[in-house]
Request: fold
Amino acid sequence: MQFHEINLSPELIQAVEKIGFSEMTEIQEKAIPPLLEGRDVIGKSNTGTGKTAAFSLPIIEQITEETRHFVNALILCPTRELAMQACEEIAKFSKFKKYVKPVAVYGGASMERQIYALKNGANIVIGTPGRVLDHLRRRTLKLQNLRTIVLDEADEMLNMGFREDIEAVLAQIPEERQTVLFSATMPPAILQITKQYQTDPVMVQIQSAAKTVDSIEQFYVSVPMGRKTDALHLLLTDKKPASTMIFCNTKKMVDELTEALISRGFPAIGLHGDMKQAQRTQVMNSVKSGRSTILIATDVAARGIDVKGIDMVFNYDLPQDHEYYIHRIGRTGRAGKCGTAYSIVSGRKQEYELRDISRYTKANITEAAIPTAGEIKANAMHSLQETILESCNGEISAEARTLAQKLLETGYSSEDLLSAILQQQVTDTMKTLPLFDIPRPITRKNGRKQETRNTVRVHINVGRKERMAPNFILGALVDATGLTGSDFGKIDIYDQYTTVEVPKEEADFIIDAMQQEKINGHKVTVKLHEERSGKQERFGSERPRNGYRDGGRDRRGGKAFSGRSHDKRHGSGSFNRRKRKG
Ligand code: ADP
Ligand code: MG
Reply:
């Protein structure tokens, strides 16, 4: 059924169509008519079924010239994000309607601004129970003329411990009112609320295909700002997915990332809304034929395209809408097959956003490590070995055998010959590896000083002779590795060389990362420092200059939110909705 087939005003239908809705969703079809009649409604339906429009369209219809001066409707939501989102949507729906003024109120934001907005003609209020109650107590929110209350995601609100707040709000609103409750599940506590606070409610239930994402393994990696492409590079190199979709939020980002990946040798191709149909077709043909195995797209461009058998989905940017997360990762793991999704986040804000997504989608999103240089190498070696053994089992051409025979006749041992051939192969494999400049969190005990940390020294072949100073050395190390200054320990500068204390488990990575580097214009060689009895170091001219740095500062504080700082009971770095408390 289409929106214009029900009794909605032309302004609303126009707005809804402008947004791009034509058919109503099932919950909208079933709930809007009784809501328009003013009936109480209990709606049981999952997220992503279109509840916001279902309850807000009838509410918007109530706002008229006469009713516009008071709060007509109050919508209670479990989180600030959901409140903000619903508020934005209501604003969009009422684009062509006069008088409608939705305002969101939630904790953790300026009280003054909310009070100002409430005073200035708010007639639909969307909020979290705690903050709504707060405003009621301060009398900055007046509900004596309230006509509709909506409890959105009621089960979520109860899970978050909002029951008392909700009941306190319900006790303060007029008894003559419409009470609407939506919930994905109907536990006894919800049924009790409906019994106590609703009058003759219409039960609306939809059997939506559960947005089951159980078959998709969901991970995230947290990287410093500006390192997402490197992280992606390493993950793609390590995991070798046969087909990948990468989501970005803007066309510009799609273009930039496509270019970056192509220049790094990946068969990537971009798709975005600005492309003409012919271009889009070209892109899709390239993907379908397998010429391009990495498709980079915006949500809008990806909508409606049908690509099968995606192994892995990456969220290069986190989706702006939580629902998109489900759509995005739903590209993989189809038809009973397992899929994997990675979200790449930078900074606290994105980490929090991802946590909200995991809450909203009720998914477990586990922190994954970015593969290290060593791991990638080991994997490459392993697959080389496999390929060779596989070849041994298959046909070997006469030409190859003749060449082998000739080589053996030269008198070199077969082991020497084989090693020489492998060396060639190994070098080729390594050449295609990314620069190992991805920082990895250093595993350390809760930000404590690292005296007990296992450190080794790396040796850099420049020293006082090259007028090195600790800050040159440290700057180059930080640049090349992406680690922070505090990850490095003591820097000793000698005449001919310099040693730097580094965490033992990072030494290989640091040495690798420094291979291409220059320090103050000098090309350098970095290796593990051979800890001798210290002949050189003991004598006068080779005494190190004052380059000591305190390696104990921990500005980064380890893995930001891996449960540790937020909930000690769940030590692992994974988002899980059950961790939260309202
Ligand atoms: P819920 O509250 O049930 O989780 P939302 O109201 O947030 O669902 O809607 C989920 C998504 O579906 C949103 O992106 C919304 O814009 C979209 N949507 C809602 N109704 C329709 C419709 N009738 N046609 C197309 N898309 C819709
Ligand atoms: Mg909703």
In short: The chain has four domains: 3-206, 210-371, 373-393+417-437, 452-577. The longest helix spans residues 373-393.
